[in-house]
Amino acid sequence: MVGFCIFRKQISYEIYRKINIISAGSYPYAETYYLNYSESEVKNAIKKFKELHPEYKVPKNIGEYELIDHQTKNPAFWYVTFFYFQDENEVIQTWIRNNGKSETTFAFVQVNQVRINSWENINDDFNYNDNSKQIEKFEKRILKVLIEILKANKGGR
Q: Does the reported pTM lie above 0.90?
């Protein structure tokens, strides 16, 4: 029975990947999270996260380009951020976007396997098991801690 459930999840994942091809937007495969905080609160929490956990800052001498958190231009919809997983030598790309006065979308977009300099989209380029591991790792190391910082800044909201 456990094997059947795992097989069902893998099939569902594959169907989701195929259907998502027709999704509109620049980041159709991103794993999105809706945070009940303003965009500025989330930006500040990311900055605080990197101050408290400098090991997650992307080193300046990694890859072809210096990866710096920035606001996109034309269109200026996203604030793009990067995190570094030192043990795996991976760079994680995320973005945040205002989704109303007090809600922000936080998205896990892609992973760069630095040793081979290859960007891979979450929910698209990984198989089911590897995709699940990447999401679990991101949620545990980044998202969970970021939410704790946001709650602390709001007095435990």
A: no
